[in-house]
């Protein structure tokens, strides 16, 4: 039986007339009702700001089930938004944004706002988080160690946030640049046990830089309250297909890591600063430029790292029955470009063309 997988997607709500973020998430979520996959644990949530909404799939065994839940939730939220004169878009950062948005209600969100102040003033960033089921937290942490070299490549593949408040940032993932302002961001350290991981998180909380254990910005961590590895590398996926691609590759990476652990293979201890350089390159260039091989500690083309990732997980993809679909989706991304590349092409016709692209692809049923 295939290892289970689930995806959390964060979206922006935009005013259809202007393309500016709209602080109406509470109303839209109430109108949408329950998640289409609620029988398997799917749910809809508020995010940090009232301009954002989150849809979390239930536990899925197949990519077909995952895709269906992703699309149904996107369409449900988009329909609820449209009834209020809004658009739902899946993008890492707003294309246009001027006003500081309202925080969502709740004591925890208030604590986050009080702690981080100006750092979150323009942080309407949205990600695509993949959960993969594991046996226990010690397994989750051991798997995380094996994932560390590949997290920057997952980011490069997902890059979908080139714009910042109406301007081209020059980065493929401005979201990751914004995220790097926070403590506990980037590739996580190498941990020798779940207890060591928890001690480090507790230390950061005690030092006053994290609100709680769910506030860590590391690109991978043990699931909070669920027996999973949670990979948080990716920008919000422009299309549901790209979210499926992230899920399939992440599940295959976890399976490959577990197979290595079963053979007694310890994860490589990639240097933290080299990992930081790899994240920066992935955020700056996406797939269209240099990346960093963190094991060899040298620059290589980002597309070569993507090829290496695919080779690394090929057996797991085959075992999960996902190989053909992953190859098809990767071929589409190579042909069409990452979300950031597609947005920049659209921008040659002006900001409205970018917004049209985002509106369309968020609810498109299949990448063409």
From TrEMBL:
Catalytic activity: L-cysteine + L-glutamate + ATP = gamma-L-glutamyl-L-cysteine + ADP + phosphate + H(+)
A molecular-function term among this protein's GO annotations: ATP binding
InterPro entries: GCL_type2/YbdK_subfam, GCS2, Gln_synth/guanido_kin_cat_dom, YbdK
Name of the gene this protein is made from: ybdK_2
Protein family: Belongs to the glutamate--cysteine ligase type 2 family. YbdK subfamily.
Superkingdom, taxonomy of origin: Bacteria
Protein function: ATP-dependent carboxylate-amine ligase which exhibits weak glutamate--cysteine ligase activity.
Protein name (record): Putative glutamate--cysteine ligase 2
Origin species: Acrocarpospora phusangensis
EC number per UniProt: 6.3.2.2
The entry's keywords: ATP-binding, Ligase, Nucleotide-binding
GO term, biological process aspect, one: modified amino acid biosynthetic process
């Amino acid at each position: 039986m295939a290892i289970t997988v689930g995806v959390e997607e964060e979206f922006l709500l935009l005013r259809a007339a202007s393309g500016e973020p709209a602080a109406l998430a509470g109303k839209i979520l109430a109108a949408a009702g329950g998640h289409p996959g609620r029988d398997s644990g799917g749910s809809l949530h508020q995010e940090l700001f009232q301009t954002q909404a989150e849809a979390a799939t239930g536990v899925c065994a197949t990519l077909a089930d995952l895709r269906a839940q992703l699309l149904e939730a996107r369409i449900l939220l988009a329909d609820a938004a449209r009834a209020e004169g809004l658009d739902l878009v899946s993008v890492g950062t707003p294309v246009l944004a001027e006003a500081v948005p309202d925080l969502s209600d709740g004591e925890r969100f208030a604590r986050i706002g009080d702690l981080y102040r100006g750092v979150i003033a323009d942080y309407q960033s949205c990600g695509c988080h993949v959960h993969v089921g594991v046996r226990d937290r010690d397994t989750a942490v051991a798997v995380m160690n094996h994932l560390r070299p590949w997290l920057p490549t997952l980011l490069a593949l997902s890059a979908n946030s080139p714009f910042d408040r109406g301007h081209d940032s020059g980065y493929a993932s401005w979201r990751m640049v914004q995220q790097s302002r926070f403590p506990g961001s980037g590739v996580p350290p190498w941990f020798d046990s779940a207890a060591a991981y928890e001690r480090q998180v507790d230390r950061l909380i005690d030092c006053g830089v994290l609100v709680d254990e769910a506030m860590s910005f590391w690109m991978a961590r043990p699931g909070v309250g669920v027996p999973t590895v949670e990979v948080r590398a990716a920008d919000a996926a422009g299309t549901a297909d790209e979210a499926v691609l992230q899920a399939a590759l992440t599940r295959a990476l976890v399976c490959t890591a577990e197979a290595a652990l079963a053979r007694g293979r310890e994860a490589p201890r990639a240097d933290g600063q080299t990992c930081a350089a790899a994240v920066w390159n992935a955020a700056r260039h996406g797939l269209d430029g240099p990346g960093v091989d963190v094991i060899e500690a040298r620059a290589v083309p980002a597309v070569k790292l993507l090829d290496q990732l695919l080779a690394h997980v090929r057996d797991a993809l085959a075992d999960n029955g996902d190989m053909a679909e992953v190859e098809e989706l990767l071929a589409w991304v190579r042909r069409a470009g990452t979300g950031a590349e597609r947005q920049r092409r659209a921008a040659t016709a002006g900001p409205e063309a970018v917004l049209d692209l985002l509106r369309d692809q968020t609810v498109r049923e299949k990448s063409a």
